[in-house]
Every structure is written in structure tokens, then in C-alpha cells.
Amino acid sequence: SQQGEEDPQALSIQEGENATMNCSYKTSINNLQWYRQNSGRGLVHLILIRSNEREKHSGRLRVTLDTSKKSSSLLITASRAADTASYFCATVPTGGGNKLTFGTGTQLKVEL
Amino acid sequence: DAGVIQSPRHEVTEMGQEVTLRCKPISGHNSLFWYRQTMMRGLELLIYFNNNVPIDDSGMPEDRFSAKMPNASFSTLKIQPSEPRDSAVYFCASSQSGEAYGYTFGSGTRLTVV
Questions:
Q1: What is each CA distance from A81 to A33, A50, A85, A109, B47, in whole angstroms?
Q2: For residue A19, what pLDDT is reported?
Q3: For B4, which residue in chain A has the nearest alpha carbon?
Q4: Mean pLDDT of chain A
Q5: CA-based nearest residue in chain A for residue B99
Q6: What are phi and psi of B31, to 5 degrees?
Q7: pLDDT tier for residue A1 given thresholds of 50, 70 and 90
Q8: What pLDDT, on a 0 to 100 scale, did the predictor assign at position B61?
Q9: Which 52-91 residues of chain A touch chain B by CB within 8 A?
Q10: Which of A99, A102, A104, A106 is most worth mutating to test chain B (most B CB atoms within 10 A of its CB)?
Q11: Rounded to an integer, what distance in angstroms lies between the CA atom of residue B82 and that of residue B63?
């Protein structure tokens, strides 16, 4: 079953613009992770944010987490054509060990 | 490290045949996960192992699916008999145990059952 839902389902922007993707989830969590999937490839781990953290940065990525609203956002700044991919949020529920449940994904297209 | 290695990359088989998918996790990772990805249902966790022991197989669709991890460096997912609705991309992933680690995914096996 899907724990998270990403919004929007698809996003098309111009190179150099910022891209923001949102994720909502249903149960209490230990951490939330974001992954990227290029077409025909496996998923690549981008960033992990713990439930007691509110914001985290990694390069051009910024992730926020609001546990009261059960939501997270991923911001990619100064996007590049190479950022074109699907992006998934995934959650580890409280007491769920390290079992990840993935959301439905956002398809990002960055055009030149 | 070569990452998580899955084989084969593509498999086309006839309905009713047995299919075996293989996975070699990253050395030192003691958790291993099998996921299935389809357009309709997205990414579904089928089963996961900690230290070679199956922990949660509640996602395995039915008795036709079975998974084993005979040692820390090898796992198989078997479908017998296969059906057209099993067509999907099957991913293996591994991680260090504990809740604060991300997964490393293999490139997947694209299974087509005709």
C-alpha cells in the first residue's frame, strides 16, 4: 500500500528554474527519504531527514519536514536538464525498523 | 563497490514457466529488500530480510512467489508458475540495518510474462 502521495504528479520547468515537489504521508514516522529514478534505472537515494529535523540541505537540494501536517517538500534549485527524472518520497514508520514505504512519485521534466 | 547487482536485466518467459531473479547486495549491508514496480501500483515491498532472515513477507502476492537468502551475499526471488500479471520491474535493494540508512537499489529486472 502507498504511504505517501506526491504532488504534483508531473512538473515541467525550464532549466535554471527551481522545482518544488510535495509529499504527504499518513502515519507517524522515524524518518523520511527522497529518491530519484531516471527512466529505466533503479532508484538513487538523495537525502534523509529525521522526524526531529525540520530542514536539511544537500547541494542544490533542500528538504523540509512538517510532522504536524505529515508533509515534506523537496526543492531543487537552479535545475538542470540532467535533473529530469521521477522523484519519490519514502517513509520509515515509527517502530517499523528500516522498512521503507514509497509514495507515488513526481515526474520532473527540465527543458533547455 | 559494484553496488547492488541484479540478474538478469531482462526476462521474457511464457505463462506457467518458473522464473528466478537474483540479487547480490552490497558487502556489509545486512538488510535486503525486494520491490516490484508497476504503473498501476507503483513500488510495492514484497519481502525483506535482516541478517539473512525473512522479517516481513506480507507483501508477497501469493504462494506462487518465494524468496530466499541462503547467505549474506545472495538472494533469489522465484515465481512458479508465472502469470502475465506478474509482468513488472523487480528491484532488489540493500542497506545497513537500523532505521537511519538509505537504500541502495539495483538496476532491476524487467520481467515480461507472455
A1: 23, 29, 9, 8, 35
A2: 97
A3: A42
A4: 93
A5: A98
A6: -120, 140
A7: very low
A8: 87
A9: 88
A10: A99
A11: 11
Lookup: cell for A99: 522498512
Residue of B nearest to A33 (CA): B102
Q: Give how far B46 is from chain A: nearest CA, Å.
A: 11
pLDDT at B16 exceeding the cut of 50: yes
Mutating which of B103, B107, B109 best tests the A interface, going by the most A Cβ atoms within 10 A? B103
What is the structure's pLDDT at A98? 80
Helices (H) and strands (E) in chain B, counts: 0, 11
Q: Name the pLDDT band for A3 (thresholds 50, 70, 90).
A: low
**Mean pLDDT throughout B39-54?**
94
The yes-or-no verdict on residue A37 having pLDDT over 60 is yes
Residues 6 or more apart in contact with residue A40 via CB below 8 angstroms: none
Q: How far is B50 from chain A (nearest CA, A)?
A: 10
Q: Give the separation between CA A1 and CA B59, rounded to whole angstroms.
A: 9
Cell of B67: 524468496
Cell 518544488, residue? A20
Region of A59 on the Ramachandran plot (φ > 0 left; ψ -120 to 50 alpha; else beta): left
